[in-house]
Write a structure and sequence with these properties.
The complex is a heterodimer of chains A (about 280) and B (about 250).
Chain A (H helix, E strand, L loop, with lengths): L4 E5 L3 H12 L3 E5 L3 H20 L5 H10 E4 L10 E4 L5 H14 L5 E4 L6 H5 L8 E6 L8 E6 L5 H13 L3 E6 L6 H4 L1 H12 L5 H10 L7 H8 L1 H14 L10 H9 L16
Parallel strand pairs in A: 1-2, 1-4, 2-3, 4-5, 5-6, 7-8
Antiparallel strand pairs in A: 6-7
Chain B lengths: L6 E5 L4 H11 L3 E3 L1 H6 L6 E4 L5 H14 L6 E4 L5 H6 L7 E5 L9 E6 L5 H13 L3 E4 L8 H17 L5 H12 L5 H8 L1 H15 L8 H8 L23
Parallel strand pairs in B: 1-2, 1-3, 3-4, 4-5, 6-7
Antiparallel strand pairs in B: 5-6
Helix pairs in contact in B: 6-8, 6-9
The chains are: A alpha/beta (about 280), B alpha/beta (about 250).
Keywords (chain B): Oxidoreductase
Pfam families (chain B): 3HCDH, 3HCDH_N
Pathway (chain B): Lipid metabolism; butanoate metabolism
Chain lengths: ~280, ~250
Amino acid sequence: MSIKTVGVIGAGTMGAGIALVCARKGHQVMLLDANQAVLDKALVYLESILTKDVEKNKISEQEMTETLELVHLVSEIEQLADCDIVIEAVPERLDLKKSIFSQLSVICREDALLLTNTSSISITEIAGGLSHPERILGFHFFNPAPVMPLVEVIRGKKSSEENVEVAYRFAQELGKVPVLVTDTPGFIVNRIARPYYNEALRVLGDHVAGVEQIDRIMKLAGGFKMGPFELQDMIGIDINFATTKSIYTDFFHEGRFKPSRIQQQMVQSGSLGRKTGEGFYDYNK
Amino acid sequence: MTTTNKAVLLVGTSPLYAELNHLMVERGYQVLSLAEAMAEPELIELAVEVNSVDMQAKKRQVRELDDLLPPNVPIITTSLAITATEVASWTQYPERVCGFGTLVPLIERELIEIAPALQTELDTIQATEDFFQSLGKETETVNDEVGLVFPRILTLIINEAVFTLMEKTATATDIDIAMKKGTNYPYGPLEWADRIGLDEIFAISRGLQRDLAEERYRTAPLLRKLVLAGRVGVRSGQGFYTYEDKVGVEA
């Protein structure tokens, strides 16, 4: 299948970033959002990134114009009918995603590939009960999508191997590094990174070491770029906690994934990290 | 602190042995084996014991050191798979025992963790800090628990990667690529395990499971089987990956 037109649903940071990744490779992109203000903001975001590229002499002014011309802002899902691939990047709510894929199942051609950028919802569950679930796959970009090289290509219970291959090659064509994952809670990265936060919280809770000590040790002894507490503050402690809880629930409460009371209290108290000015560290100083 | 010709007794079978030996000689220490120390035990100013897999062997060697050396000589012991407090409890002079933890290759470790036992006296802690700092390492003193901080957290990351591999959620290569490209880990967890030695990681995992007794610390069965099969990583030519030239571990 030759891919010409890509639909991107949701024009937030992830959606806009994915649209840029696709447009940079010459695809026609239909960027969909029901909210016009979000679409306007996405356009400003795309222009700002491309302007920086021009300033750094990475691309010419003409290439910038050409790339922007490839991105079409749309507000009705029916406008995605001719897309070869649709990538959904709306907020992480199962009902929302299910509703979108059930509409896409009707609107899109039977051979169109339907991808979800979810980081925490089961692909199998999103595809469950829909016609042609074999064409629904996970396609998980990392934030910021234009920069981070990884894409997790996730096969749901009913995804076809043929479509997995198409999605894998598509990720490569976009200049990304794809990895293949079978649908399991957290896929690869969010699952295996869990202990970095969770065990650090346990070590803290048991008073083996303090916040600054643990961060210092993981950076100097372990070679990690950021300590587990600095990272939680950057990601948002609420986001981190929600991911842990969802993986814990989806693994039917296996002990390894049990969330931390310390993290819960941070969320309850409104100390969510950098975005609130306070988390494990104080950013108001 | 001058280290010139200071005599240190080094014993144990951990991969740390070769690297510590190398580092100490480079920094002007006179490194003695147990047999050499037995001839002139009064020369020894410090003893370092590095066994992390076989707890019986560890106990035997720590007791040998304790019997051989005058009571004021510090015994620095790896507390990766067992607490320093438990190791100290084997000795007649527990106040001279202090734990530490790190993983090979030492060239990549800017910092070494020190974990005093409950019984350790202040002079011993000071001697332990001075010793590692004299090897050019920063130190951080933490409370005594199996695996300390870095080895414990890394062990759990590796264990989760092994579960992921065992369940065939992804291949070893894809798991390692994902963790490096998706979240900037310095190494993929499985290639990291191969470099450290699966036996060392297994020992830490087992120690956590034994001492803390929670499902959380359940060792991935595949990790146990690889160790039993002798596939401990780069050192043995095979682990999660195969290595044609058994290079990379000798210091």
